[in-house]
Amino acid sequence: MHHPAQFQGPTRLRPHTEYEAKEDQRYCPAAAMEQVTSAGRMVQITVTNGYDLKGSKGDTPVTVIRAEFNQVVLGDSSKVTVSPDGTAKYNFTSSFEFSPEGGITLDDLAHKPVFLTMTEVLPKERKQKEEKTLVLGQAVVDLLPLLEGETSFEMMLPVHPVQGSPLETPRPGSQQCSLGVKVFVAEPLLTTAQALGSNLLKVTLEAAYSVPECFNPLGPPQNYMVGLQVPALGEKDYPILFKNGTLKLGGEREPVPRPKKWPIANILAPGANNIPDAFIMGSPYEEEEGELNHAEDREFRSQAECVKKRIVWDLESRCYLDPHAVSSKASFSPKKQYDEIDFLAEYMYCQNEDESQLSFHGVAYVNMVPLLYPGVRRIRGAFHVHPYLDTTVYEKTKCLFSLFRDTGHHLIQNNKVGAVTSPLPKSLISKTPKEDKAGKEKDTDGKLKPSEVQVSSVKSQSSDTPVEGEAPLSHNPEGQQYSEAGTYIVLEIELDKALVPKRLPEELARRVKEMIPPRPPLTRRTGGAQKAVSDYHAQIKNISRAILDEYHKMFGKQAAKLGCDLDSETLEEQKCQLNYELNCSGKYFAFKEQLKHAVVKIVREKYLKTTSFESQEELQTFISELYVFLVDQMHVALNQTMPDDIQGPEATIPTSSEQLRLFAFEAQVNENFEVAAVYYEERLVREPQNLEYWLDYGAFCLLIEDNIKAQECFRKALSLNESHIQSLLLCGVLAVLMENYEQAEIFFEDATCLDPTNVVAWTLLGLYYEIQNNGIRMEMAFHEAFKQLQAQTFQTQVMMQKSTGTIEDNEEGKRIEPAPSTWGVTKDASVTILKVEAPQGSVAVFSTVDEALEDSPKLQSESQEPILTVQYQDPTIGPKPSSMVYKDIPDKKVSKCQDLPPFPHPTPHHGASQTHSSIFMETIRFLMKVNAVQYVHRVLTHELLCPQGGASCEYFLVLAQTHLLKKDFAKADEYLQQAAQMDYLNPNVWGLKGHLCFLSGNHTEAKACYERTVSFVVDASEMHFIFLRLGLIYLEEKEYEKAKKTYLQACKRSPSCLTWLGLGIACYRLDEITEAEDALSEANALNNYNAEVWAYLALVCLKAGRQLEAEQAYKYTVKLKLKDEALLAEIHMVQEMVGFGDPSF
To answer: What keywords were assigned to this record (predicted)?
Structure first.
């Protein structure tokens, strides 16, 4: 067994007693220097001056400085008399040898300071043989800068007075007394490689709260200790002991900030216990990494930290990690991340002052995996203290070694000062209980408890097979009191540098720019169709001016005389004379040649005709079409040159971008994807710099599974704004779907860097890491997503309760009862289908979620062959203990469905049934909104297995929706029935049920579902298409009055061509011709390419007796190819009845 660090040999450079000085004469300066040159380097500490000093016998005392390091006196200064102004010049240098191979190591420099004790030499009194001394105070020199690569540094250190010292009262007009100190080493203690690769671990033990009631501060003195082992490289583990905790009664909180203390005993000056510039700052519970950081724990922790007993340490211990130890931590295999990296913090309560009896043995499990997250340097949290039981400890850590039980007496007796002991060899730690049984009995003086009976089913650390005859601790009644009292310790672990570096925001932004460079707006082309038409207009204007000039020369005087008396015959005669003159003079031919080039450009640029025609008939058809266009454009140009005062502006109803989006959405729902694309593209033409329009178009492309075009749209949106989070996420989703995983990581990571509070960004990043089989980072991302969602939910609850005045504020904590969170429902969050006929041979997509759902009862039982294990940092994310076994779900190739229609994306409604949300459901809502159905099924699996989520009503709604997309009506109906059982009053359930019945042809049942949905006080997430379909059913069943009311509601909410058309049809069937014409006119103004609108306008005009308008409406009905044969037959019947309306007869 290794002993604690004992500094013998070259370490003890200066003896601290006369006897040792005689015995150790070999430690002369010359001999020491010889050893330094061969073995180590000298670290020199020089005390230069003292300021604002005073003594007990006046303002000019005689003082001495003693330097101590690692329980060894380095030397005493000469006696120096303080000047009247309180200064003293010491120029006292002491030193010790740094020897990394033995003696004082880098780890000693990390956690052990140099103590400078100032002593006053009192004047001798009569008959006094020896001088009396009085300790005034102590100063503390922190040697940590030497580990940061510095070779020398100076500092002004305060001298902390001891109790009763005259330094407690400073000199008049002066501050606290201080010492000027210089630290020097000839060369850096660390090489460049060591400085870059090493790290510094700081462990701060704050306090244990809610300790058992049997702990009595008025009883016999006790020693409360906490020990833990720092896993290191090779054969060494570093045990750390925190001793001498102070048991306090409840009544008030521990103040923050408060200083951290050195883990060293017997410090004379109370102020010297405090580590310079190191404070316990505290943090909100929700930001901690421990086990008691949820909303339901706030009340318990607030009470425990205010009212109940606690044991306070406030100690910080440091541990130097060499590059090998750092690299070993950063390269743990996924199998070991949850075992060997855990700190085993053993909590021990000593019954007797002589520390021979150990009892109240407990253990806390600190998950160190978050320190392997990119950029994470610090974890702080509260951790439950459990009774120490060998079986449980082995199950969680795969280790049977107990720091207190196996080596506790040795460490305690030999570690009176200092917190970090010498490394323990692995051979000792891995020793089986059977091998060490005799040693334990000897150490405990035969005081092992009868309850510590061994069981043979526990495996030793060094073997995978049970060791016969072992007797691990299987019963711990004293330790059980920790669980009954709810005891927890607050611990902080901090690294100087992150074990896994994180990409800088600048690097991520640069990588995104490399993939998607910013695109400047396109300059207008000088050519093209628009330029060709403009040139044609210009030539027409020029020729018209030339003809007017010629007319003025020939008939100007005659026109001036006659004025307004010109009759039609005179004008016709002048026209004939003008034509004759233009033909005879050759000007007509010149005008034609002048116009010829503009016409050729129109043919090439406007009609894209650059090759010869295949037949004469095709040529004649094109010439006729071209002639009509040229005449129309000629009229446009002439009207611009000579406007007609009588002609008024063209009556148009401008459509907004939101209306265009609604029209595109209606076409998309009806599977008229070509028309939907036209509307989306029209929005882009109007505002090409609006990234929301690009995202909408990209989501439409995702729906029709045109992933390449969707990627172009999302990247175009990102090029317009490189900091737009939604664009980054969608680019990442497309990169994953197209298997560009490196780019996907950049996009997701950049999104989390730009918006660290975005729940969806962290969840998508975790899903990406799951695809990459990176368990540590997956857990990190899911944990961060949960933490942000929890913070947002808590903030929402606080705002709601403040608005209602039901919140109670305390000084540090807030008592807030957990309330169900509500989530906003946006208009675009849901989509619904209009009448769609199921295509033949619909294909199946994503059956993995169905299999997982069918096997969900099996998942709740023990799985014999777990395939994928996911560990959650938070108890609310994963079950306790923090592991969850996922059912083996075979990966199946996804069949593309080119004809899949969009469908509503139901979201939680604001009603009586409000449920908590999970990070996966938040992500599902986002993905469904952008039609990323291929990604949804992976998230649904997580939602099913997540305890915070599970098989909820919304979960089944999403599943039903995805099966409706595949036309799998049987599965959709099954999931809707389960959703209705969970939330019968959810309007989204009945709305989706109506869509299912409507698509399957059961309009009677669909009507009942829609009517129930409309009757709810709370609307469904999307009512537009519910009204449209319900109105259509009313029209089919000839309930025209109900249809009229339904369509009126739709027109008030979101007017469109279809809503006005339905209203016009209902009014027409009710013989309300005027109202029908008004509604149909509105529908025609919004979309004049709808053949059904023209058909009903033709019927209205026929009934009203307006022949010309009836014939025009019928002409467009035929031209747009009306598909409703029954409606076309009705038009023919009315035409025969009134005797007009069809100009073809």
So the answer is: Cell projection, Cilium, Flagellum, Repeat, TPR repeat
Find the helix or strand (DSSP H, E) in which 51 lies.
Answer: strand 41-51
- Angle formed at CA 73 by CA 67 and CA 79, multiple of 5 degrees: 50
How many angstroms separate the CA atoms of 903 and 663, rounded?
A: 15
Q: CB 649: neighbour CB atoms within 10 A?
A: 5
Q: Which two tokens stand for residue 1006?
A: 């669909």
Residues of the chain with CATH 2.60.40.150: 41-165+176-190, 194-349+357-407+476-495
Q: Which residues contact 617 (CB under 8 A, 6 or more apart)?
A: none
What is the layout of strands, in order, in the sheet containing 236-242? Answer: 386-387, 358-366, 343-350, 223-231, 236-242, 424-425
Q: Helix (H, G, I), strand (E, B), or coil: what is residue 135?
A: strand
**Pairing relationship of beta strands 72-76 and 80-81 according to DSSP bridges:** unpaired
Torsion angle, CA of 1032/1038/1044/1045, rounded to 10 degrees? -90
Distance of alpha carbon 405 from its chain centroid, rounded?
Answer: 43
What gap in Å lies between CA 710 and CA 932, rounded to an integer? 11
> Would you say 366 and 310 are in contact if contact means Cβ atoms under 8 Å apart?
no
Q: Identify the CATH assignment for 953-1020 out of 3.40.640.10, 1.10.20.10, 1.25.40.10, 3.90.660.20.
A: 1.25.40.10
For residue 833, what pLDDT is reported? 34
CA distance 593 to 167: 111
> How remote is the C-alpha of 478 from its chain's centroid?
43
Residues of the chain short of pLDDT 50, as ranges, are 1-38, 233-235, 330-353, 355, 415-471, 645-652, 807-914
Residue 413's pLDDT is what? 53
Q: How far is CA 1039 from CA 8, 1036, 1042, 1061, in A?
A: 104, 8, 6, 16
Q: What is the pLDDT of residue 113?
A: 92
648, with CB counted inside 10 A (0-12, 13-18, 19+), is exposed
- How far apart are the C-alpha atoms of 1062 and 1054, rounded to whole Å? 13
What is residue 605's predicted lDDT score, i.e. its pLDDT?
82
3-state SS assignment for residue 523: coil
Give backbone dihedrals phi and psi of 277, rounded to 5 degrees, phi first: 55, 35
CATH 1.25.40.10 domain residues, the chain? 953-1020
The CATH fold of domain 41-165+176-190 = Immunoglobulin-like (2.60.40)
**What pLDDT digit, counting tens, does each position of 275-318 carry?**
988 999 888 887 888 888 887 888 898 888 898 988 999 999 88
- Tell me if the pTM is above 0.70: no
Cα 559 off chain centre by: 82
CA distance 1117 to 1143: 13
What is the per-residue pLDDT for 16?
Answer: 37
CB of 704 closer than 8 Å to CB of 673: yes
- Residues sharing a CB contact under 8 Å with residue 837, sequence separation 6 or more, in sequence order: none
Q: What class does CATH assign to 194-349+357-407+476-495? A: mainly beta
Q: Which two tokens stand for residue 565?
A: 């008396």
pLDDT on residue 410: 54
Task: Give start and end residues of each alpha helix (H) in 885-968.
Answer: 919-929, 933-945, 953-965
Tell me how far apart the alpha carbons of residues 121 and 1013 are, in angstroms, rounded to a whole number: 94
Show the tokens assigned to 228: 């833990």
Please give the Cα distance from 1039 to 1046 (Å, whole number). Answer: 11
Adjacent-strand bridge partners of 120: 63, 134
